[in-house]
Amino acid sequence: MADSEKQILSAEMEHALLRATLDNMLQGVAMYDAGHKLVTWNKRFVDYLEMPEEFLGTDRTFSDYIRYLGDRGEFGDADVEEALKKRLAMLDTSHSFERVRPDGTVLEVRRDPVPGGGFIAIYTDITERKKAELALRKAMEDAESASKVKSAFLANMSHELRTPLNAIIGYSELLAEDAADRGDDTGLADLHKIGAAGKHLLGLINEILDLSKIEAGKMELYVERVALTDVINDVKTIVDPMVTKNGNRLIIECPADIGSLRTDLTKLKQCLINLLSNAAKFTKEGAVTLRLSRANEGDGEADKFVRFEVIDSGIGMTQEQVGRLFQAFTQADSSTTRNFGGTGLGLTITRHFCAMMGGSIEVASTPGKGSVFTIKLPDRGKGDDVARKTPAAAQAGAASSITVLIVDDDNAVHDVLSATLGREGYLLLHARDGAEALEIMRRTPPDVVTLDVQMPKIDGWSVLGIMKSEPALEHIPVIMLTIVDDRNLGFSLGASEFMTKPVDRARLTALLRKVAPAKKNATILIVDDDADVRAVVRATVESAGLKSAEAANGRLALGWLLDNEPPALILLDLMMPEVDGFEFLEKIKAIDSLAEVPIVVLTAKNLSEKERNFLTERTLLVLNKGGQPIGSLGAALSALARRPHGAAAAND
Amino acid sequence: MKILLVEDNEMNRDMLSRRLVRNGYDIVMAVDGQQAVTMAASERPDLILMDMSLPVIDGWEATRQVKANPSTGNIPIIALTAHAMSEDESKARAAGCDDFDTKPVDIVRLVGKIKALVN
Fold first, then answer.
1. Other Cβ atoms within 10 Å of B58 Cβ, number
2. Please, which residues bridge with residue A604 across strands?
3. Which residue in A434, A426, A466, A440 sits closest to A453, CA to CA?
4. Cα–Cα distance between A122 and A44 in angstroms, integer?
5. CA A219 – CA A478 distance, rounded (Å)
6. In angstroms, rounded to a whole number, what is the distance separating the alpha carbons of residues A642 and A447?
7. Distance in Å, alpha carbon of B86 to nearest chain A alpha carbon
8. Who is most buried in A319, A359, A573, A630, counting CB within 10 A?
């Protein structure tokens, strides 16, 4: 066979192969030449777009196709010529978008330019995927709201139940005091029974509330340095009457030099009281021992812990009973409830508390012999205990005085940050939405705020905006947290430098004073396409004794920057013709002489998803909620909190 | 010795005041945070027992205002809240409370705390 024949054959084969590929693809394909004429398409394209033969039969251009779709009502109320203009403008770059067709199917449309001119359009039917996504999201929202409703109900219910219970307990005690004065022993005994039953019920309600708080992620950790002998004395006073009631002895084994531990005092006490009162309940004429010791499981600072053992000589449990022990509302045996009372919540709560404090709880038991419950709590950051200044110890010491407000509607984030930051000794405050966050900040101003960008009702950007307009909150450093994978820590637009329109003149003036306090005649570059906005800003700038320069879009601003000395500050609008704020930011990143120039973004309050993402990538710190590690967050928080004031405020 | 009892719930006010009187204290009462601030200045009590969830202004804010006023700032304040949650205790201390106890009160324990603050 001659070479040319081979070539012809292979060209034919290639063509056949291409045809077969096109016709068997799951996607619709349409190819256009350099003149935007439709040259090739496959069957899926015809099916997905319901293109009739008579339309495709003749020479058609991309414009014909778009107009045809428009006439058929595929773009809804949108103007067809506008739609066409937009699409034509995008043809020389790869782009993709989703389109919902009138029949409800969702197509992902992707257009890519091909070498030598022309482009290819690929249509993927993503209706099922969209449906599944929607169903999943709805299921998650339903589950979340059900859980929230339940927790709120329990919290309110507990409060409502406690109020009358207070009266029952209080008045029974008041009457008991009267009865004691009168020497009425019968009355006294009965009144004590009412009081005791009331207190028991109160204990159950408190446990239910605790558990609902834990499940709702609202249980907070307050880490402080706790002297262990003080804890033991407090606990002993409380449990002594319970232990002796069953004829038991309470034995405390605690080395005199046990020292202190950084942990949550109330929760530690509650755990120990839980275990000791359980031990007392299930032991008669025996001994209940609380033993404390320090131990190492390795050489590192992280392997040190304090062990609390509660040992009883009571009824003990079988292996099977032990297995069920930590489940909510189950006790070792259902007959236990009848014989010994209790909700079966105490151990569940204890286990949750131990986990929150970074520790663990274990149980060993022999039926008829007794049980040993062991709580291990990590002993980290011994800063002020020993005169050893390891970096870790120094850091933990510093962290202990730093309060961090975590603002996020996602419980998982609270859990992750609580675990990480709590362990490092930060004091944590929690808010689930913007309104709650602001309320907490006004009451107890934190040293640092971590702010979720996307939250229901008031979102992160709005919270930030409000914070920056309140003198008491304005200086608090903010770390924006959001779900983005692309992190850009180097260049920070800085959450401290963000303003919303309409421009608050007082705020702008304050900001200008911070940025250019000493420099007389410093120039502020105003980049905004809206002449009215420029006029307002210019007036503010000039009344602050500063010079202003103006540019109506990013391109003009870049031109100005090339011809002039770097300004003291750039006030930047985002949505502008020609070169917009985003592109402007991208471009000036490359210019070294402008690296030090602070930029304040001026924008309308409602940012699009794209804008938010872009800005978020450039804010102080970006945390990828989905992934770890966030170990660096602690260091970043410390650094921020130690800074006298917010990012731009070098000279207040 | 005079104690200002700040409590919005009538039954709690009645109970606690009677039990404190029984223990030998003079009691004056306020029913909201604002009244507490006013009465702290006008009555000059030796100690304030402050409920935290109060109408008009809450107990935290009332505590801050009492502590911020030079003429009342040295009056010891014991916060009383419904449930022994550590956040309540921390919040109360952050607001300037000298001690903290939970309701329903254990009168022996409360009197112990009062005595510890006022010698």
1. 17
2. A501
3. A434
4. 10
5. 23
6. 9
7. 6
8. A573
Q: Please answer whether residues A36 and A61 qualify as being in contact, where contact means their C-beta atoms are separated by less than 8 angstroms.
A: yes
CB A284 within 8 A of CB A248: yes
- Rounded Cα distance between A524 and A548, Å, is 5
Q: Are strands B2-6 and B47-51 parallel, antiparallel or unpaired?
A: parallel
Q: Which of B83, B102, B110, B111 has the most A C-beta neighbours within 10 Å, making it the best mutation to test the interface with A?
A: B83
Question: Cβ–Cβ of A163/B90 closer than 8 Å?
Answer: no
Closest B-chain CA to A162: B82
Number of C-alpha atoms within 13 angstroms, CB side, residue A59?
Answer: 4
At A252-275, the pLDDT tens digits run: 998 888 888 888 888 898 899 989
d(CA A539, CA A526): 11
The total of other beta-carbon atoms located within 10 Å of residue A455's CB is 22
Q: How many helices (H) and strands (E) does chain A have?
A: 22, 21
The residues pairing with A95 across neighbouring beta strands, listed in sequence order, are: A111
Closest by CA position to A318, among listed A338, A334, A332: A332
Tell me: pLDDT of A101 over 90.
Answer: no
Q: Which of B116, B112, B84 is nearest to B98 (CA)?
A: B116
Q: DSSP letter at A90?
A: H
Evaluated on CA atoms A295, A297, A299, A303, the torsion sign reads negative
Question: Contact at 8 Å (CB) between A226 and A427?
Answer: no
pLDDT in tens, B13-61: 999 999 999 999 999 999 999 999 999 999 999 999 999 888 889 898 9
- The reported pLDDT for the residue numbered A640 is 44
Greatest pairwise CA separation for chain B in angstroms: 33
Token pair in block for residue A459: 């979102």
Tell me the average pLDDT across A303-310. Answer: 88
Lowest mean pLDDT among A227-231, A404-408, A576-580: A576-580
CB contact under 8 A, A264 and B89: no
What's the one-letter identity of residue A210?
D
Amino acid identity of A431?
Answer: A
Q: How many CB atoms lie within 10 A of CB A10?
A: 11
**For A269-288, b where at least 16 C-beta lie within 10 A, e where not — what string?**
bbbbbbbbbbbbbbbeebbb
Nearest by CB to B104, from A166, A177, A220: name it: A166
Quick: pLDDT tens for B83-117: 655 566 777 888 889 988 888 788 888 999 999 89
How many residues does this entry show for chain A?
652
